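pasting for ref. prot 1 ->
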Amino acid sequence: MNKGKNNSIKVFTIILLLCFVQAVSAQGRLRLPGIIGTNMVLQRNVPIVVWGWASPAEQVVVAFKGKKYTGVAGKDSAWKITLDVSAAGGPYNMSVATKDTSIQLRNILIGDVWLCSGQSNMEFGIQTEKNGEQAISEAKDSLVHFFFVPWKTALSPQSDIATTTNLLNGKWLVCSPDVLRANWAWHGFSAVGYYFARAIRAAQGVPLGMIGSYKGGTPAQAWISEEGLKKEPALVRHAERHNKLLADYDVQQEKYSTQQSAYLAAQKEWDKTKSGFKPQAPAPPDGGFGAPFNLYNGMIAPLKNYALRGVLWYQGESNGDRLEDALEYKTLFPALIRDWRTQWAQKELPFLYVQLTSYRDTATVPSQGLWPWVRYAQQSALALPNTGMAVIYDVGDAKDIHPKNKQDVGVRLSLLARKIVYKEKIIANGPQLLSYDVKGDKVILHFDQHDLLLKASASTGYSGFGIAGDDKVFHWATATVKDNTILLSASAVKHPVAVRFNWADSPPAILYNKEGLPATPFRTDNWDAK
């Protein structure tokens, strides 16, 4: 009995030693992060950072474009080497080596790198987009490369992205019809991201690297760092939730194992009969994809050494389900922008984003719904430098939160990039309100553009406009347009004091410029939300 017990202890000890040796060996082996690899696109006109892990104190040599750069791994095995600034070009090869290991990287381009992030409407793949099949068949531009960051949550910032069983996820891929038709990401790369890349390639001709780090159904607080959020006292509730997840993690992990086993068994039975309610997976102990900081930690933090030209962001739906959340977005969203700029050490990193589209029933009164408050928060973020907002309520679907027209969205983002980032002299936005005057029972609106195009709504006239008096009750207004002004009036409002335009979950598309871009929703009042 004792002899058998002693043998068991010896065997267990040997296994532990083997595991330890393997762990030390893995730590000492030269390794690159997932974002650095063959087919990658590096950012032009800025110092290029290459980093990874090797044995402590081991010298690492990077050879690139005829030059060699050296660095030494620290006690934590991490090393970082900065390469010279390079103009757009390629393809190039790169060698990363230690005295006994060498990694060869091929087909490297230097151009502009854009990070696409947000929730499901950014995640929405090119394969299921309205014009996707034609776009895929024509996708033969080998100077566009894609990288999809595998989903990962974490309670603390990670140094590398997640590994994945899908061989195409977490790898740099060269644009082609076969790649875009393949089974990776969610029905292929982001349709918004692809159409943006196609438009920028046509306008600028520079190689593009498109990184997709997105996850459907996720709120903005999951994408911000703990450090960035704590700079805003008004957002403390999210930090408190994170701290509770940390404190309860061990207990919840133990419960989760049992719950997960029961769920898998129930799912197996349900798959046989398809009767009754479908089993729901238990919440993971770290809070999952919607918990504060989790997606920043798992899917953004590992990228922050990788230089970017800018960010494309499409998110907000998950912060518009409650009035409290919609109003908080006015603080949360700018905090996220500032945080990412801090993380990338780029004070004015271009941040271009999509305002929420239309969804739910058409408005019955001139001011209603929750999403207008999210749109207002998004518009307010334009106060930050180097930001741009694509207005898209005219290409939404009142019955589908995932409208299939993503081509117009990508193109409108590309217009913003061409104007703000690439300094082209073009019109990139629809009309925006400059000022207004009240004259008797009428309101005169002044816009920043001439040649306004006003289209009548089929049901209630020019129903996008509402005016209110001191009672703060908005009534539909009729509108007439002349050059860059619009005259509003409503028989029920004798002394107007405020105007709201397209203040609804699903607003009508009635006001455009001659370029076909819709006017930005607005309000002239500062009244509290109801």
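and prot 2 ->
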Amino acid sequence: MADYILFLPKHRLISALKPFTIPLLCALIFGLAFLSIKRGSIVFLEPAAPALQSSLTAPKECKIMEIDSGRFRLEVADFSNEQLRVQFQAPPKARYLMIRKGYDILGGKAAAHIRVSIQDGESIEVKGEPDDFTPRYFIPLPLQKEIIKVVVENLDSDPAKLVIDEMGLYRNKPQLGKGLKHYLENIALTLGLSALLGILLHSFLEKKGASIFGVLYFLVLPIAVQCSVLLLLFSPEWARDLRIEFTSGPALQEAAGCNLNYGLYMASSILQGKGPLIVDMPPWCRMPGYGFILALAGYPFDMLQMAMNSVLVQMCLFALSVAFFFWAALRIMPPFMAGLISTVLAFLPIRMFYLQIESMMPAVIVFCSGAACLFCSQYYKGKQIPLRYHILLHSSFAFWFFLRTDVLPAWALISLAIYGVHWRSWKYFLIPIAFVLAIGLPWAFFKMPFTGEFSMTTNSIGASMMVGLWEIPHQFIWPVTDGAYFSWITGVGLEPGTKAASDYAVQEVFRFCFTYPVYVFSLIWHKFLIFAQSFWWSKYISALCWIRLYLMTIIVLSFVLNYKRFQTFLLSWPIFLNVPVFFLFYSSLGDGRFYNAPTACLLIAALSLLLDPEFYRRVYSHLGRAAVIIICMFGVMKFGPLVDDYFIKNEKLRYWAPFLDPTLSTLNVVEKEQSI
């Protein structure tokens, strides 16, 4: 491929600026590194003015959790009109007591109004909502007191749960700065200018320099971005800091095995030498990979510190994946193009503080895209691809399989397309088979003593298929919850969480699909429209509503116009081979967490075409074909929602059963007949 600089004419001024590119890029790297350290320390080490070291004693009915040195979380399960008395061993420099009221995330009623009094000192009333936290309150302390006695009273008439998110002693009342607007302006300006300057500098870099200094830049930029995002989300000026979010949130408050803490419990069990267990049992619906990743954070007996460190681990892995993608993309793209795409990836809205697999999936997908770039670089040379590139490509699929099983259909289809149809080199099938066995067999043998079953994947495939059937308005009794699966599978005499139950559920779901083919088509179309419309910021910027559909149209044009089909296929396969899995399986429509990560590869594949001048020449030379695809895109935008509404409202057509008897399906239970 020609080594050109996009949008920049070859001029003497350009040649004169090239010697300054590397020094400027190095200065930018050091600046971003300093920014990462500064904002990272605020988020992880000093989320507010540090509390003074002190000890806290309270009655036995009060549950105390130490947040960090000098800060405590308090919880009383039954707090009526009685008083809670606690006392601090105060250091000499203590001048203020800080308190912030919280709420019960598990849904219980929490005290909304409380009075906090200091013996021989002042008192304040803290007023808030039962389902929300309050700002910080600071109460002056009496001077020269070694013991600070605090009384908390419930001002509500009804009994409730007392939740205090944080309490501690401070030397000075922290100055909270200029507020959210100041932070937003500062962070947006700093990162925006850094990104623009970085893209510009990559325009002047030769590939040799970009493979060194560009990689360093993209190791630091994603970390700077994520630290800034965490500071925006968890600044004590308008929200709780990250430690409070973990101590008061689902990670440490919900039961073990929930969506936002299963990785922590698996990692803790791994570090204790027990393997990836949750409450001494292997998870029925998880692969072991995420537990091993979070185990890199250490601290098996300190869940809070492990949660904090896990955020750092995920940030670093994402930065490594972006840097790897940039280095690999240089093999098939000029530095400007690779730099622009990598910058877009660095700014993706990734929720690293959500300790679940979906937070790691963008890093996995970016790594898959990097491996695909290296494979394509050898493919377009027209020579036989060395074995190491095959192994690297399939290792990216194996990494995904280590975390989640939904990659298996796409992995099989891609292997079949490359080795069975394109090259007819059947011996290369041994590579993906070896990877699958290397991950699946140890996991199956590890679970056998606990479950008595041999299962190389999860036992939740049937549950995901069954629950996914109801993600559209319908007449059946089943809600979109795991409880629906548990009730149904228990009702047919099987034990939830077993492979036998999952296999039976898969069989029944397929029977249901053949029984109601129109309903299933309507379901798939309904979920497709949700995927096409629900972009990250589409709730706030209506112009972004159909951006996924626009980007998919660009990719389809590549196939129709026969322009870099192989490259586009390997860069965009999650959109066409993985996302459709969730049109039938459970897709978590509430937050779209299974759809957001594949958007990264959608951006990579589409931007690599949009930034290529030759692509526009190909479109111009085949205007007829391109026009048909674009008209189809506008047709989906115009008539797609109408088709969706038609099927949902036309129940007679949607519940038409031309092939199988509905009474033979155990899932065919409508609300008129019975309820769960």
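The first helix runs from residue 12 to 17.
The longest strand covers residues 160-170.
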